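Pasting as-is:
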Amino acid sequence: MIAGHFGLAAGIKAREQAVPLWALMLATQWLDVAFVPLYAANIERIDIIGGGAPGYGNGIIHADYTHSLVGAMVLAFIFALPAAWRWGRRTAVVLGAVVLSHWFLDLLVHRHDMPLLPGAPAGTPLFGFGLWRWPVATATAELALVLWGSYSYFKAATVVTRAHDLVRLGRARLAAGAILLSGLLTLALSVLGL
């Protein structure tokens, strides 16, 4: 759901223009950013289904700290703190909500591997609707988020930019195109298992 997260961030930028796009893009991936050092330290891990090569949705993710609901809430709060200091309360709330949205989007695609509490004991219920079992449906959902986010961003940037300011209009179109192309490339790489 990497591309889908980015698409959501672009769509949020269209509605919350004061929030920096780079901060939204980082916020939407913050749980995965926190996951990487824990994965490297073997605290969180990914088990490949069927023992094959990693692929699009082909794993059970044991990310009990970064991808538990409470862990995601804590990471959202940690991300929002410096944003509140730098850009104010509204931007901090938006960025915190975008961090937390990662958990809810992952809930749609993950198999039953997402806990509510970090480090929950064995036997505690795990959640996930498992859309990854149907890669075409998952890719379609991600593509829809990428297209919606890119279009929303382009539309908002074009409206804000005065028509006679061709330089700003060109930059808005370039940014929207970059969001669309990077989203499509990210989705293609994910589907190919790269």
